[in-house]
Amino acid sequence: MLRRKSLKLYDHPDDFPFWIQINRHNTADLPDLHVHEFVEMVFVVEGSGEHLFQDIRYGIHEGDIFIINPGEAHGYSLKADEELVVINCLFEMSLIPMTLLMELRAMWSMDFYYVQPFLDEKARFHHKLNLRGSDAAAVTAVLKDLMQELHQQREGYRLLIQIKMVQLFVLLSRFYQERHIFGDNLSTGEVLVQRVCGYIERHANVKLSLTFLGSLFHISQRQLNRYFNRYVGCSPIEYIHKTRIEKAKRLLADTDVTIAAISEAVGYEDASFFSKLFTRKTGFSPGNYRIKFRN
């Protein structure tokens, strides 16, 4: 079984799920292939190497920046003469309050967080974002500010970190869109669906409804249903259930967490309802699924 990391391994403040640090890797100091329970943003400051992701590998170079989602296996491979310096920014999805994003009307400017990490592998990694010049300098400055705030922990540092993380994602989303990496050949409806799907992926553990999603993305429930059926092949509610079931399958196979706790972790308060739904969708009860697919 792959090593599974949580934020408890890092010396972050209590009840504030955030950590950031610079790591220097060479062949004598490489993290094993692992998975983690948090979101990880990686910015390559210097050097080059190979990034191992799930069952693929690809080259990474200075200026590359990318996100690893919870549950995704990754690591690095370097040659004897290669060295890699990266900034690792680790956080749980609860770090940035949704009320803050709604107040700032930032949902339309967060594609690097809500869309890019959920694209297919070709779009996600072979057309990844690489920063140079003033763009790299702008992102580096925000990352250094984040490190300073976390290290010094002066009055108001938590709020400043949350705001700077929003600033960082808005900047990255701007650079991403300016390079036309995403969305050139997509209709307005398809781009909207990508954003809503990404939001569901990030927040499947909380209460979600068609009314809430329509309000959040400023679209009628009827139109949102129409877009989803056209571009995804199911309704938003069906997509929520599908996303939650996939997350539950991963937790059942990869962890020893109880079924009741998994039910709650993926957004179902009623464990009995979760078990019945899981069985209907997969053909296995949660317990039998764990026995059959245990990693």
Summarize the structure.
It comes from Paenibacillus hemerocallicola. Helix content is 46%, strand content 18%. The protein is built from 12 helices and 9 strands.
What does this structure look like?
It comes from Paenibacillus hemerocallicola. Keywords: DNA-binding, Transcription, Transcription regulation. The chain has 295 residues and is of the alpha+beta class. The protein has 2 domains: 3-178, Jelly Rolls (Sandwich), CATH 2.60.120.280; 186-295, Homeodomain-like (Arc Repressor Mutant, subunit A). The chain is 46% helix and 18% strand. It contains 12 helices and 9 strands. The chain has helices at 98-103, 111-114, 121-125, 133-152, 157-178, 188-202, 210-216, 221-231, 236-254, 259-265, 271-282, 286-293; strands at 3-5, 18-25, 34-36, 39-53, 56-61, 64-68, 74-77, 84-91, 129-130. The strands form 2 sheets. Strands 2, 4, 5, 6, 7, 8 and 9 form a 7-stranded antiparallel beta sheet that branches. Strands 1-3 form a two-stranded parallel ribbon. A hairpin with a 2-residue loop joins strand 4 (39-53) and strand 5. Helix 6 (188-202) crosses helix 8 (221-231). The longest helix is centred in the middle third of the chain and has 22 residues, at 157-178. The radius of gyration is 20 Å and the shape is globular.
